[in-house]
Amino acid sequence: MYRWKLSSQEPCSITCSIGVSRSFVSCVRYDGVEVHDMYCDAVTRPEPVHDFCIGRECQPRWEASSWSECSRTCGEGFQFRQVRCWKMLSPGLDSSVYSDLCMEAELERPPERRTCKSPTCGPQWEVAEWSECPAKCGRKGQVTRDVRCTEESRSCDPSSRPSTVKNCTGPPCERQWTVSEWGPCSGGCGEGITVRHVYCKAPEGRVVPENQCPAESKPLSIHPCGERECAPHWLTQDWERCNTTCGRGVKRRLIQCVGITAGKIQVHEDEACERRDKPEEDSTCFERPCFKWYSTPWSECTKTCGVGELVRGCDPLTKPVSKQTCTLQACPTEPPDESCQDRPSTNCLLALKVNLCSHWYYSKACCHSCRCNTTCGH
């Protein structure tokens, strides 16, 4: 007369990537009408069915760190923060990705610098950002920052000078590498690879930056696959993150000589693979522009007696030539795009100052300023 029935599945538990969809159990009469659960035998009640479901692809997003302290203790200074593009790649794997993804999605990039004002005052100490903590997990280290006086000709109060060094602690050591299942094989021996996600997790299950897990124990994310017997060949892993937070740096990847014997991977000495075919292990990379102070030696005193001034800067008479002509192929006859506008979130004045117009990102983000720098006023 009465029986249990699994109802249709509810919507996917998440709107992007892979989620879980659950079926409901209800008690129905012989004619299919749903009745109270008391009419069905509780002992034979089936368990709800949980199935994986695929939502739409997750969209990238900008994530910004907290603002730094003001670069000056009085007057007008600046605050900085890091802005990176993030995207959920798979369940539990929320990772930073190339900024191009957020730009292609036409997402407005949060500002990385803003002014901060304090009451006007005399000579004050000016501080830069703290460096990153170099300590490994569970260990102590020190971070440093530059400190200078805003008015070089007058002395700041030494007793109020901010510290240039402070102690720091590396991330907790209990954070560990977590891996997903291996994906399907992409081809035959020597060409086929299988890929899995490798990410660093905190004890509570939160995904954290990879530098908080020990690099020497990171599991492979790319694995050879194919025939049961496979001659030694080069296998490349994904690129690691750039080793600098600003300016130009170096990124590295693991290259191994591997083969397959009796269906199992074998790691060989490099000599077993063709040396001239080995892929590059290092590559240059570029992060946001660096901000750094430069100074020259002090000049002679402006007076021979009494109170004068010392100045430091560059002698305009000895300034090297900063421009010269160069002849290239003829310019195209098509006129430049007069309607291009600088992206408001990009500091184009700074990009011009440090000659970044040749970089593909700044040539696009600062198209008006870069174009005008070469054509306006000529």
Automatic annotation (TrEMBL):
Pfam families in the record: PLAC, TSP1_ADAMTS, TSP_1
Any one GO CC term of the record: extracellular region
Domain of life, per lineage: Eukaryota
Main localization, broad class: secreted
Family annotation (Gene3D superfamilies): Thrombospondin type-1 (TSP1) repeat
Record keywords: Repeat, Secreted, Signal
InterPro entries: ADAMTS_ADAMTS-like (IPR050439), PLAC (IPR010909), TSP1_rpt (IPR000884), TSP1_rpt_sf (IPR036383)
Cell location: Secreted
Cross-referenced SUPFAM superfamilies: TSP-1 type 1 repeat
Residue span, PLAC domain: 336-374
PROSITE patterns hit by this protein: PLAC, TSP1
Protein name, as recorded: ADAMTS-like 2
